[in-house]
Amino acid sequence: GEVLVEHNSDVRLPPASLTKLMTSYVLSYELEQGNVSNDDMVLISQRAWAQNPIFAGSSLMWIEVGKEVKLSDLHRGVVISSGNDASVAVAEHLAGSENAFADIMNQHAQILGMTNSHFINSHGLPDPDHYTTARDLALLAKAILKYPEEYALYSEHDFTYNSIRTTNRNRLLFKDDSVDGLKTG
């Protein structure tokens, strides 16, 4: 928890896919609390569907509307595939809607001391009111480490769902054996 080096650590920036760190953190918290199970089957909505036009050209797990997907697979889709579709499915499963999930994300941010962060969505696609700082992301990273089973997902090199293999976007995992996780964005 000690700062070794910093530069512009409190400048608010759009987090892009680093948003999924908070999505995964909230899911890890809910799993730990027993509010959900990795075996839960999640019905994929039109909004979470990979073919949702707002996801065009973005990272996806390739889930299909109307199908049921195991929550543990969605978690891998968030962390490994960096799936915007998986992020929305998780948000809807945990909170009923993505807007309600964003409120939960912001509550967790405050509890963690992330005073310069505000979340609008679960995936990180651009919004002027969606921002965080390097310092706040460091706080979140430290909090993620409290969930070792879920943290282990970040070091997985690939994930196959529905016969579609996606490779972890964190290329450092493939270059340095001492790297064990978190995300790129």
Please tell me about this protein's structure.
This protein has 185 residues and is mainly alpha-helical. 37% of the residues lie in helices and 8% in strands. It has seven helices and four strands; from the N terminus they run H-E-E-H-H-H-H-H-E-E-H. A two-stranded antiparallel sheet has the order 1-2. A two-stranded antiparallel ribbon has the order 3-4. A hairpin with a 2-residue loop joins strand 3 and strand 4. Helix 1 runs parallel beside helix 3, helix 1 packs parallel to helix 5 and helix 3 packs across helix 4. The two termini are 22 Å apart. 39% of the residues are buried.
| CA-based shape | globular
- The residue ranges in which pLDDT falls below 50 over 5 or more consecutive positions are none
Beta-strand percentage range: 5-15%
Instruction: Tell me the strand order in the biggest sheet.
Output: 1-2
Write down the secondary-structure element order.
HEEHHHHHEEH
* Classification by helices and strands: mainly alpha
Q: Figure out the total of helices.
A: 7
Biggest β-sheet, characterized?
A: 2 strands, antiparallel
Oligomer: single chain
Q: Distance between the terminal alpha carbons, to the nearest Å?
A: 22 Å
Rg for CA atoms: 15 Å
Describe, in short, the structure shown.
37% of the residues lie in helices and 8% in strands. It is mostly helical and 185 residues long.
